[in-house]
Amino acid sequence: MSFWEFANPVRFNRLATRTLPWLAGATALCLGIGLIWGFFFTPDDYQQGSTVKIIYIHVPSAMMAINAWFMMFATSLVWLIRRHHVSALAARAAAPIGAVMTLIALFTGAIWGQPMWGTYWEWDPRLTSFMVLFIFYLGYIALWEAIEDPDKAADLTAVLCMVGSVFAALSRWAVQFWNQGLHQGASLSLDKEENVADVFYFPLLVCLAGFVLLFVTLVVLRTRTEIRARRAMALMQREGEHSA
Amino acid sequence: MNAYSALLRRELTLALRSGGGAGLGLAFFLIVIMLIPFGVGPETPTLGLIAPGVLWVAALLACLLSLDRLFQQDAEDGTLDILALSPVPMEGLVMVKTLGHWLTTGVPLVIAAPVLGLTLNLAGPAYPWLVAALLVGTPALSALGAIGAALTVGVRRGGLLLSILVLPLYIPTLIFGAQVVSLAAKGLDPGIAMMLLTGTSLFAVAVSPFASAAALRVHLS
């Protein structure tokens, strides 16, 4: 029993159908516990008041926004090397989820930033790189939509994902250089991991687990849908050939 | 070598003949720069402050404008299939086409930029750096643009898609390029920014032929 067995779409779908209820249940459990614990059973921060609680959505979504791209990079690479269709479809399935996670991170950050920094938006390196990441997601999704032939689309988006990964990373460092050039290192961004006390830390861990599970659930679900859509397309083509 | 020079000659001839659009990028550059004072106001200190960034953004957009000509026409009339059969490898083909694009779009921008900088009241010490930064940076714009053009070559009316794919790739080049000019305009030493710009540009020029050729092969298969 090797991992590559699930490159077979039928096996993958069978596994997906069997595990999805468990994944969804675990997601609901973790998110439920984490968010309720975090929102209602942790004290207000002495400086930030109750706005600190947005951390339970902001940090996990930001983490998934980046990791979704890593996942797309890995699955695109697998598609380019081993030509497993499931892999390419999983990359396609992950992109909109990653884009939404990026948006959630940006919006929750803006909502938190207004009372804390006195502004919804600051051209801080972190914020700017997330906006750049969002644009990379948009381009990737748009390219998938634009090309009709599914294998060609998979190839081209994989190339874009490779090039995009390199340039997204490069932009991250370039943006840091750019802002320090303006602000002389005066950054508003908090390094959150270091500031978090244990009371906030444990519910945050549960929320992180919940977001990871949510991402996995959605990717598996959407990949199954993509596989079924491809199957339906193939059947329709065969039908067309018969009647012709 | 003969094949390469023939290819380059073909690219330049096509771009320079009427309808080739070599002048369009330059005209666009001119118009964008002319529009800026209308939008921002005629106060010369403000214009001088934003001039480095505006010049770079305008150059970037002018470059973007002519990218869809890079492979699209050749793909539509079948020239690309013939070129793929020639002894020149696909990577070499992309390099020559990128070079042709740079010579007809990037170089005119480099030459026009100082003059337009004058109209925006760019500070004195920034001029040599503006020319140097554009000279080093515009090849990256053409090279990264080639990747986008190759990815969208099979897409009908892919111009908008092309810009969505290419503009985020331009961010590092734009940041470093504009930093060089604005540091020089403030009288600071732009050496580090210049080195980073050169590095980014060399990297883009090195990566582009392989990525673009891979995309073109997918299109031709």
UniProtKB/TrEMBL annotation, chain A:
GO terms for molecular function: heme binding; heme transmembrane transporter activity. Required for the export of heme to the periplasm for the biogenesis of c-type cytochromes. Keywords: Cell inner membrane, Cell membrane, Cytochrome c-type biogenesis, Membrane, Transmembrane, Transmembrane helix, Transport. It is found in: Cell inner membrane; Membrane. It is a multi-pass membrane protein. GO terms for cellular component: plasma membrane. Pfam families: Cytochrom_C_asm. Belongs to the CcmC/CycZ/HelC family. It comes from Rubricella aquisinus. Residues 7-183 form the Cytochrome c assembly protein domain. One of its GO terms (biological process) is cytochrome complex assembly. The chain crosses the membrane at residues 20-42, 54-81, 93-113, 125-144, 156-179, 199-221. PANTHER family: CYTOCHROME B_B6 PROTEIN-RELATED, HEME EXPORTER PROTEIN C. This is Heme exporter protein C.
Automatic annotation (TrEMBL), chain B:
The keyword Membrane applies. The chain crosses the membrane at residues 21-40, 46-67, 99-120, 126-153, 160-185, 191-216. It is a multi-pass membrane protein. It is found in: Cell inner membrane. It comes from the Bacteria. GO terms for molecular function: heme transmembrane transporter activity. InterPro entries: Cyt_c_biogenesis_CcmB, Cyt_c_CcmB_bac. One of its GO terms (cellular component) is plasma membrane. Keywords: Cell inner membrane, Cell membrane, Cytochrome c-type biogenesis, Membrane, Transmembrane, Transmembrane helix, Transport. One of its GO terms (biological process) is cytochrome c biosynthetic process. Required for the export of heme to the periplasm for the biogenesis of c-type cytochromes. Belongs to the CcmB/CycW/HelB family. This is Heme exporter protein B. It comes from Rubricella aquisinus.
